Amino acid sequence: MVAVRDTHLKAGFDLHDWMTTVDLPETDKTTLLSVFEYCQHRIEDQSEQQRLSKRSAEMIGILLTLHMDMDTLKSAVLFPLIEPGYLTVEQTKADFSEGIGLLPRAKASIRPITIQFVMIRPTNTESCLEVSNANARSN
After folding, report:
1. Vertex 102, ends 21 and 138: CA angle to 5°?
2. pLDDT tens sequence across 40-72
3. Neighbours of 89 (CB within 10 A)
4. What's the rounded Cα separation, in Å, for the pair 100 and 76?
5. Model pLDDT for residues 4-52, shown as the tens digit of each residue
6. Where do runs of H (alpha helix) occur along 1-139?
7. Rounded Cα gap, residues 87 and 49, in angstroms
8. What's the CA gap between 32 and 89, in Å, rounded?
9. Environment class of residue 107 by beta-carbon count within 10 Å: exposed (0-12), middle (13-18) or buried (19+)?
10. Sequence-ordered list of residues with C-beta below 8 angstroms from that of 36, at least 6 positions apart, any chain
């Protein structure tokens, strides 16, 4: 069974509407909202603000199911801005804390595992499936 995140159910994304659905105490919601606003001030294009906020909200939705702490949730808001260069790890350390600055850097250093499925035509009636890790070959 696959769960569909609430951010996927709507065409647009409204940060304030979404924040009302987050299962956190009001003080934590206010804290997260201030981090979102910090990020939005760094991006001029409103569609880009919305896209990155939605991505952060998706990560927060996942992290909340894992009962992660507030620093990890803040990092989920900040990380999407680090990848395209709107924000640096050094800026997150200076503006938030050393610990919050380290979480996005750790995430950025993790490379996803890519699995490729290749169907090989067998010479007999058996079918073969080769699974390879593309990252292992690239190292």
Report:
1. 100
2. 999 999 889 889 999 999 989 888 888 888 988
3. 18
4. 10
5. 445 444 567 788 898 888 989 999 999 999 999 999 999 999 889 889 9
6. 15-21, 26-40, 46-65, 70-82, 89-95, 98-109, 134-138
7. 13
8. 18
9. middle
10. 15, 53, 56, 77
